[in-house]
């Protein structure tokens, strides 16, 4: 298959994955913190750690906000373009490392659809993860022909989003698997290793010591690393991946109309046909299985050292694990290519199931954004002039895996973008009303004030003043 046809196939896969409910996608969770800070002109102050650790994020998000403002669809269009760029760069990198064309393309096709990082495609704040991975893979490609430029591009990608940077180790590994010569594998990779060392020193030594505090506690526990790797394995290859696909199918069964099932049948059949054909055309090549598992491990290495992190299925904690999905995609492509009898059937089934999960996820996130807009439209006109703090009750926090409002900042940021001058929090299931002060219990405790405190119950469409603990208890009793 020519490069042009390969690019068209990947573009078709990304387009099909994005098409369902695309116009209904919006902003979620972290997005509102970024957007509200950008709107206030306080991005570099509120995200000082991000500013210093990932300095290229500042012109990136600042430029996007200047161009797109608070209109969601351009952000989501860019998200899918970055999906395509990463899939294409992965395909080209595998080809350069000796993989046969059909296997490399099948791996890239699976990556374009891989379901275990669904929120990365739906949260505009996750654009850095997609952009960082695409830039890192692009730098590895450039490094093959222009070492200095490739190493510089790799450093730039690392200062944009560091999680994919451990792919630096995949370059000598792929060379060794291809040539079985350790010296030839290691020596050419030293400029990339030097770029990685500079980036690591900046992000993990200089910035925490002199510019900004480390945002996550560091863990050097081998048991924690093994737990992260084990959970990541289940999500990428095994039971949690299967469970997620089953949940996606269940969500689609409960929400798709007859016409939508007909459209899915056409789109799924087309992708399944091409995936099966690629599995049939695949040829024996270099040993890709070790490379697949190495890519998976390198994707999770950055999280070994974060004591607060544990990967979970279809949640905020799993939304940016794109690098590990490279390993899963290559593994399944290798398995389909080498299993001569059942491989084409497996390839077609995976392509169809992955697409169904993408559509189910899109539908859930579109519905969640619709709920947000409904809550905001109803609450804003009811906010009293003397309100200082607003607590949200009486709403559905999630639609499947999609977040409506859940954090200490997303409801607040969404209201501020609508011009509301009030501090807002999700109160539902998160408040304790003590005699001396109300307390938000959400990843720790934060005392609030009864002065100017109001609760909005969306189910009742009612705003209630909470001037003291007795009023708060009465409000909770009547809900």
Architecture overview:
The structure is a single chain. With 479 residues, the protein is of the alpha/beta class. It has helices spanning 3-19, 30-40, 43-46, 48-53, 57-68, 72-96, 101-113, 118-122, 127-145, 147-158, 170-179, 182-186, 190-211, 222-237, 239-255, 258-281, 288-300, 322-338, 343-379, 410-417, 469-478; strands spanning 389-393, 398-399, 402-403, 423-426, 431-433, 438-441, 445-447, 453-457, 462-465. The protein has 21 helices and 9 strands. Helix 7 (101-113) packs parallel to helix 19, helix 11 (170-179) packs antiparallel against helix 17 and helix 18 runs antiparallel to helix 19.
General form: globular
* Distance, first to last CA: 62 Å
Low-confidence stretches: none
Structural class: alpha/beta
* Overall number of strands: 9
Largest sheet: 4 strands, mixed
pLDDT averaged residue by residue: 92
Strand content is 5-15%
Helix content: 55-70%
Count of helical stretches: 21
Physical arrangement of strands within the biggest beta sheet = 4-1-8-9
Order of helices and strands: HHHHHHHHHHHHHHHHHHHEEEHEEEEEEH
């Amino acid at each position: 298959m020519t490069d042009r046809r390969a690019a068209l196939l990947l573009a078709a896969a990304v387009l099909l994955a994005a098409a369902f409910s695309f116009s209904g996608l919006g902003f979620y969770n972290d997005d509102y913190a970024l957007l509200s800070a950008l709107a206030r002109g306080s991005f570099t102050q509120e995200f000082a750690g991000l500013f210093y650790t990932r300095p290229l994020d500042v012109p990136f998000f600042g430029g996007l906000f200047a161009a797109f403002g608070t209109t969601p669809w351009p952000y989501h269009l860019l998200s899918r373009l970055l999906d395509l760029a990463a899939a294409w760069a992965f395909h080209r990198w595998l080809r350069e490392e000796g993989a046969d064309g059909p296997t490399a393309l099948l791996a890239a096709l699976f990556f374009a659809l891989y379901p275990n990082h669904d929120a990365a495609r739906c949260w505009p704040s996750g654009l850095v993860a997609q952009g960082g991975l695409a830039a890192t893979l692009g730098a590895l490609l450039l490094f093959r022909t222009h070492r200095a430029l490739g190493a510089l591009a790799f450093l730039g990608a690392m200062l944009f989003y560091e999680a994919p940077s451990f792919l630096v180790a995949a370059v000598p590994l792929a060379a060794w698997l291809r040539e079985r010569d350790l010296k030839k594998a290691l020596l050419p990779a030293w400029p990339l290793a030097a770029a990685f060392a500079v980036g690591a020193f900046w992000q993990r030594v200089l910035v925490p010591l002199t510019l900004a505090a480390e945002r996550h506690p560091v863990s050097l526990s081998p048991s924690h690393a093994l737990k992260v790797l084990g959970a990541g394995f289940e999500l990428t290859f095994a039971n949690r991946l299967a469970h997620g696909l089953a949940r996606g199918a269940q969500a689609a069964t409960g929400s798709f109309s007859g016409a939508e099932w007909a459209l899915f049948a056409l789109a799924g059949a087309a992708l399944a046909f091409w995936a099966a054909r690629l599995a049939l055309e695949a040829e024996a090549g270099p040993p890709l299985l070790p490379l697949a598992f190495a890519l998976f491990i390198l994707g999770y290495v950055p999280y070994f050292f974060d004591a607060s992190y544990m990967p979970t299925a279809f949640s905020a904690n799993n939304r940016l694990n794109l690098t590990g999905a490279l390993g899963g995609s290559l593994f399944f492509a290798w398995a389909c290519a080498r299993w001569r009898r059942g491989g084409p059937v497996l390839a077609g089934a995976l392509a169809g199931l992955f697409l169904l999960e993408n559509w189910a996820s899109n539908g859930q996130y579109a519905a969640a954004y619709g709920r947000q807009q409904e809550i905001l439209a109803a609450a804003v006109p009811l906010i009293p002039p003397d309100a200082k703090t607003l607590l949200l009750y009486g709403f559905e926090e999630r639609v499947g895996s999609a977040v409506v409002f859940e954090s200490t900042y997303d409801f607040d940021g969404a209201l501020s973008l609508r011009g509301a001058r009030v501090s807002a929090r999700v109160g539902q299931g998160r408040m304790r009303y003590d005699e001396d002060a109300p307390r938000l219990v959400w990843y720790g405790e934060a005392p609030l004030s009864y002065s100017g405190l109001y609760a909005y119950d969306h189910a009742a469409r009612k705003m209630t003043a909470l001037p003291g603990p007795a009023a708060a208890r009465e409000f909770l009793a009547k809900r």
